[in-house]
Amino acid sequence: MANKPDAQPRSFTLRRTFSATPEQVFRAWSSAGHLRHWFCPDAFSVAEAEVEFRVGGVFNICMRTADGEDHWTNGRFLEIQPHSRLVIEMEPRVAGGQPLFRAHTAVGFEATPQGTVMTLEQRYTPLDPAAASMIEGAPRGWAQTLERLAQEVKRIKGLAPFVRSAVHATFRIERIYPATRTQVYRALTDPEAKSKWFTGGSGYTVLLREMEVRPGGRETLKGRWENGLETTFAAVYYDVVPEERLVYAYDMYMDERKLSVSLATFEIQDADGGTRLVLTEQGAFLDGYDDAGAREHGSGLLLDALGASLRAAAMN
Question: Taken in order 188, 189, 193, 199, is the CA torsion positive or negative?
Answer without folding.
Answer: positive
